[in-house]
């Protein structure tokens, strides 16, 4: 009988405040989805950072004929200079491996990197590509001595640390992650306020019934339980919708981005998505329950 009464009261509350309940569900769904996206971005950035930082190299570009770089002075690097540079690079402390990339290899890599840009591919020729050395360091953080030793050497056009290039990209991803988390927090607060208003309306509409229950000796928990369950159900339904949005986001955004930027080597798995979904659903339900309890303690008068 008690269980039937509680569930009937929950149904009455949800039916009487249908529009508010729908608003709570939508807000919780969007808020938890944004929170989940922020957590997924955080995991993806961490994986991609590890993936790329283990592969970053120092690129030593060599002079080509008619190069506009000031260090080249319009002259191409000679064979003797190339051999001397290779020996010098291999003898530097902290250098793990040295790869020489000729124009044909550089052109092939360029064609693969810009496969979607047909006009640029057609306009670029093999002789336009510079030769270079790809220097893999034992410790990617210790790149400054290598760059300082090679800059200004005969035949060297410029020395580029690839980590500086990808750091800008990861800085942008960090901003996106924090923006998603901030929006999620705002939406979660909005959901809590909506839940509080819904509980207030339910308590006001049923103030006579709850007064009678109090007079016959019903405990505070028994009186408050239907209202708390309304919030919990709304949070649970919103969490389910958020889970669907997170699955869609994983398939159509994260998988594509990871394959494009890391060839699938740093892609969050479904176990990570399941963990995020579980966490967001728990957070959504807990927020709804806490908001219901806090609102009842302040506004329920029986």
From TrEMBL:
Domain of life: Bacteria
Alphabetic keyword roster: Cell cycle, Cell division, Cell membrane, Membrane, Transmembrane, Transmembrane helix
Pfam families according to UniProt: FtsX (PF02687), FtsX_ECD (PF18075)
Transmembrane segments: 21-41, 178-199, 220-253, 273-296
Residue ranges of domain FtsX extracellular in the record: 56-159
Domain ABC3 transporter permease C-terminal span(s) in chain numbering: 182-301
Compartments, as annotated in UniProt: Cell membrane
Family: Belongs to the ABC-4 integral membrane protein family. FtsX subfamily.
Subunit-structure text: Forms a membrane-associated complex with FtsE.
Name used for this protein in its record: Cell division protein FtsX
Lineage summary: Bacteria, Bacillati, Actinomycetota, Actinomycetes, Streptosporangiales
